[in-house]
Amino acid sequence: METAQSQEHAGPGALTAFARFVLCGGGVGIASSFAVAGLASWVPWALANALVTAVSTLLATELHARFTFGAGGRATWRQHTQSAGSAAAAYAVTCGAMLVLQQVVAAPGAVLEQVVYLSASALAGVARFVVLRVVVFARNRSRSAGSATRCRRPSAAVPWLVAQFLAPLRGRARSAPDFAKAA
Which among 70, 57, 51 is positioned nearest to 28, based on CA atoms? Predict the structure, then answer.
């Protein structure tokens, strides 16, 4: 029984969490896509994307806290703030993709805009999943492992982050190294 409680506290595995992330985040993303398209007919596209991104980030963070990563309740302000940071990066990716589309195609149709927007959102979404799993919602898991890490050299953290993401697939996880000493 204690093993089941430990696993429940640790959150779902990587594949289960990713499936839930796709369901929740993808559902919010598709709804956001239509909301951006509709709102952009009244306001500039970048403003529509910013407004929809803000609202959808709040909604998705709550869904991810409660369902995707099993954080055990509502998202904290810290989790909302960190999630907003990853959403800002996703916003930059979607805006960048749409700006490139506008430069490459003089008058893109709605279908092409949706394909580009959703493709950019999917790419940004995969990156967000890794950030949310490894950083934002990892604290509940890392408390039981006893590792809270401050990373002073982000380039040294990337291999460790990838290893932590893949560790549940291989059935093992390592404690966080001290990146400051890895100079």
Answer: 57
CA distance 118 to 8: 33
Helix (H) or strand (E) holding 156: helix 154-170
Rounded Cα distance, 167 and 164, in Å: 5
Burial of 117 (0-12, 13-18, 19+ CB in 10 A): buried
Please check whether residue 59 is in contact with residue 12, taking contact to mean a CB–CB distance below 8 angstroms: no
* Measured distance CA(173)–CA(160) in Å, rounded: 10
Give tens-digit pLDDT for 110-143.
Answer: 899 999 988 998 888 888 888 888 888 875 444 4
Are 152 and 180 within 8 A, CB to CB? yes
Alpha helices (H) along 11-153: 14-39, 45-63, 77-104, 110-131, 139-145
* C-alpha span between 76 and 178 (Å, rounded): 26
**CB-based contacts of 131: which residues, under 8 Å, 6+ apart?**
82, 86
Does the pTM surpass 0.85? The reply is no
Cβ pair 149, 179 in contact under 8 A: yes
